[in-house]
Design goal:
The chain is mainly α and about 160 residues long. The chain folds into two domains: about 45 residues; about 120 residues, Winged helix-like DNA-binding domain superfamily/Winged helix DNA-binding domain (Arc Repressor Mutant, subunit A, Orthogonal Bundle). The protein is built from seven helices and two strands; from the N terminus they run αααααββαα. The chain has a two-stranded antiparallel ribbon.
């Protein structure tokens, strides 16, 4: 079964036969898959009145261990955005009553961010729908193939996360 990447690679091999374009066979597919996933995630999350960024923040808070709050710095580390961007996101989510900020009991200069019950219900519903959609996307792979693909992708991505 040929796909768009096969056609792209064949074209480059004809145009520049002296260049090894084999990395395109993997990374162009990863790139195309990422774009498809972003579109799918946008559609699923919109059903829950969320954007990808708001889902990311709420998800980080939802996964937080006891005492179930994170500092803005911890949220920055998990979502890879700037401090100013995080402040704007928290303002927006707090305005929608999905998170609340409280003074840090151990440092009066800091705050702690908690997900509200409304935020919890929203992110839980969104994750349930998102996982169902992503199960369908991976439906052509059996459990062993999924594990193999996951392991291979982990090896490629891990250096970027280090």
């Amino acid at each position: 079964m040929d796909d768009e990447v096969d056609r792209l690679v064949q074209g480059w091999r004809r145009a520049l036969p002296e260049v090894d374009v084999s990395p395109l066979e993997v990374l162009s597919r990863v790139s195309r898959l990422a774009r498809h996933l972003d579109r799918q995630r946008t559609v699923v999350l919109a059903r829950h009145d969320l954007e990808i960024w708001s889902f990311d923040v709420l998800s980080a808070l939802r996964r937080a261990e006891a005492p179930k709050h994170l500092s803005p710095g911890q949220l920055l580390a998990q979502t890879l955005v700037s401090s100013g961007t995080m402040t704007n996101r928290l303002d927006h989510l707090e305005g929608r009553a999905l998170v609340r900020r409280r003074p840090d009991p151990t440092d009066a200069r800091s705050v702690r961010v908690q997900i509200t019950p409304a935020g919890r219900r929203r992110v839980d519903g969104a994750l349930t729908d998102l996982v169902a959609r992503e199960q369908a996307i991976l439906g052509t792979l059996d459990d062993g193939e999924r594990a193999e693909l996951s392991g291979l992708l982990r090896r490629v991505v891990a250096p970027f996360d280090a």
